[in-house]
Design goal:
By secondary structure, the protein is of the alpha+beta class. The protein has 2 domains: 52 residues, Thrombin, subunit H (Beta Barrel), CATH 2.40.10.170; 102 residues, CarD-like, C-terminal domain (Methane Monooxygenase Hydroxylase, Chain G, domain 1, Up-down Bundle), CATH 1.20.58.1290. It is built from 6 helices and 5 strands, in the order ββββαβααααα. Strands 4-3-2-1-5 form a 5-stranded antiparallel β-sheet. Helix 2 packs parallel to helix 4 and helix 3 runs parallel beside helix 5.
């Protein structure tokens, strides 16, 4: 990896490697990729020697955006169990680093939240799933975070069969 590469960091989203720095943490010198996300001006430091362990991946191909659209338009999956069980199920889906899983979580929780507010824990998962989705689509579609956010909201806001 090199400066300028755009990659996906599971549980954070897509960003760009803007620099490589040497830093000392706990008395140990190490090289770090400086990784910036396109929303929230968040900066992350990734140890160069931990890249494989973290599960970084390349952005999806532009041709795969249609698959993301299909997931966002699909019917809502009704997860069973307490909010705590649903929280952990959704968290595991996001940890996978898969944009399609993030899209499904964002779709399900957005629709659930629109009907009846989700718990604070599920709201955090909703926000995280949207961040993961938005940051990757910003790069793949070459649009602003605001444009992608509005587009995602429009795609998710398709009436469910029982809402008609």
């Amino acid at each position: 990896m090199k400066i300028g590469d755009k990659i996906v960091y599971p549980m954070h989203g897509a960003g760009e490697i803007t620099d490589i720095e040497e830093n000392e943490v706990g008395g140990v010198k190490n090289s770090y990729y400086i990784f910036r996300l396109p929303i929230g001006d968040m900066k992350l430091m990734l140890p160069v020697d931990k890249v494989e362990e973290v599960g970084l991946r390349e952005l999806i191909a532009p041709a795969q955006v249609n698959e993301v659209i299909e997931v966002l338009r699909a019917e809502t999956e009704q997860l069973q169990g307490s909010w705590n069980k649903r929280f952990h199920t959704n968290l595991e889906r996001l940890k996978s680093g898969d944009i399609f899983e993030a899209a499904a979580v964002a779709r399900n929780l957005t629709r659930q939240n629109n009907k009846k507010k989700v718990s604070s824990g599920e709201k955090k998962i909703l926000d995280l799933s949207r961040q993961i989705l938005i940051t990757e689509l910003v790069y793949v579609c070459d649009k602003s975070p605001e444009e992608i956010t509005a587009w995602i909201d429009e795609l998710i806001d398709i009436p469910e069969p029982d809402d008609k």
